[in-house]
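Sequence in, structure out. First:
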Amino acid sequence: MTDIKKDVVLITGAGGQLGSELANGLIEIYGKEHVISTDLRIPEAETEHLFLELDVMDKKRLGDLIRTYRVTQVYHLAAILSAKGESNPLLSWQINMEGLLNILEAAREFQLKVYWPSSIATFGANTPSNPTPQFTITEPGTVYGISKHAGELWCQYYHEKFGVDVRSLRYPGLIGYKSLPGGGTTDYAVDIFHKAIKGGDFTCFLKENTVLPMMYMPDAVRATLELMHADANKITVRTSYNIQAMSFSPKEIYGKIKKHYPEFEMDYAPDFRQKIAETWPQKLEDTLAQKDWGWKPEFDLPAMVDDMLLNLKKRVNYKSKVLEEI
């Protein structure tokens, strides 16, 4: 096991839904002096740790940062998500695929440990959906899914060919209260909370009984860190691990939220994202993640709804107070 005091962690795409929360988890482990966040733009709000501009397509800039700060680990989160990806497929492929290859090449050159997130988008209409096995048919129908499927194979290739310690999770839909939806097909399950708290009604872009696997952000962060700190000898999957937490439909999450907000109403206007969702799993089989590194979720749907509403209301009330003072 390496001495964590000597590790320096670089996060790409740190301004996204997962990045900021993962950064906080990494700071707790390594200290703020050892965590560097990067994205295309530096956030306006000041961060407690170093945040730098980085385009993952810029191989020279990436190499310079790794050398300058003596980086030992990279959490590569920069990507264009499923729904946004369909509006510009070629750009999405370029960023998602070439960005990953730049990271893997840097890992080979500098002997870095790498985390790269995959997704349920790697599966397709012909994949068994309830549950979806760890090893199964993968025929994705979106450019995002195609890039994730190819990325999984590249990660496995770099591990087997060059010994790169690269690890990955197939995330389900992620739900968190610290950031706004980021352009994914499962993002209705984030937006619905904001609408409920603000007192407005909500129009869902999926049909009411569309069941998808989801995960609360604290579980996603914990799963990522547990995987990355597991003994390398126990990691048997070098494409990407299935992980399951909860599965529900828009109708089910609406029912849980309505118990807190009886006046809240939701209707349905399915759009192009419905077809994407219909090709994705309803539930993931994750026995290998359980066996290899002890994966176990802490949040089910009721617990997630309660915690999400509690924390989101705190954030809304805080922002309102700040605006009043200004």
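Second:
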Amino acid sequence: MPTIAHLSDLHFGREDRRVVEALVRHLSANPPDLVVASGDFTQRAREGQFRKAAQFFFSLPEPRLAVPGNHDVPLFNVLARAFWPLRKYQSHIHGSLRPVFDDGQLCVVGINTTRRLAPRLGGYWKDGIAREEDLAFACSVFSNSPSQARILVMHHPIRTGADQNRADVIPNSKHALEQLASAGVDAILYGHLHTPHALVEIEEALQTPRSMLCIMAGTATSSRLRGDWKQSYNRIWFDGDRCSVDVFAFDGKEFAHKSTTPFVSDASGWSPA
């Protein structure tokens, strides 16, 4: 029963040290089969913040897979943002912007959804997109993998909950969902909005009837909280035609189980159990 610890939005530079230490203890005592971090390692993509984020990330159990977030792109250094936006991320966290993990049970592919500049006035520095070449790469890996569970990791939402802003969804989400469903993807993991949710993507507008899991993680270690949620991470396990998304949240001292959302699958994809 392979398990994934899905972290997101670490925001070193605005981290809570108590939470960081508690999360290291928790994951060290309960190691998953894979640790996934879906972006925003830093608050402002500064050297010292990346060093702290790397120290934390590489202290977690192996294997690990990571993708960058919009906060990992320099905001105020215009030249760096224009010409080498992810140089520090690639130097400190991971050199590849298309990481792959495939152990025969889990096939996990990460893609970079950050942008130097986006056209929306309210999101010009933070909005994301799934690039066609990255989707094609991921779909090729998934289509050729013997693993039973196929998972894509990105930073920006491909779907939001009812209480979240639709404007935060990547603009080409419908196309991306169709491509990924055709490649047999089971789940898409992302972050960005600092509150967790687990949804089934079954929009009638999609050209394929196959449904996928859309799973958002909250902020794992930062003080940038949203609503009533504390720092949290998702623990996701797959067992054949079953999947469960468990949310673990910081209770002031340690990470403790907060909720469970189960799913089952058949030929048409996933649905709530």
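Remark: The mean pLDDT is 93.
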